[in-house]
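Project standup — Tuesday

K.O.: blocked on the structure for the chain from last sprint. Re-posting the sequence here as requested.
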Amino acid sequence: MNNMELVKKLLNCDISWKEFSSVENCNSHLIDLKGTVIKVNKSMVKKAIQACLNNKYTMQDLLDWANTVRFSDAFLIEENCRDCVISILDRIEESDEEGCELSTNDLLSMLDKLDKKEEW
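H.V.: unblocked you, prediction finished:
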């Protein structure tokens, strides 16, 4: 399996960051596809949140996913939902700080905001 296939599996929540990084031997959430950019839309973010709600992903897996999508040059968030998606990814990223943990209600609210293209 090549790097692009693995990146797509990660983006589609078919594998976790931990699984991706063990195959790719990388310890940073930054992915470089050598100029190739993958567009990220709100449906992809919803899929990651739903993976967490359905216990396919742990909260840490969701945090890793959000950090990878948010901070890697390999991903470009679609313009029509950029502000909403970035605000959601930023909130997920903050969830590892003490007192900022995400609840199930937070995740459900994120899904609702993504549907409405509202910022967090």
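K.O.: great, moving the ticket to review. The CA atoms of residues 66 and 89 lie 5 Å apart. The two ends are 36 Å apart (CA to CA).
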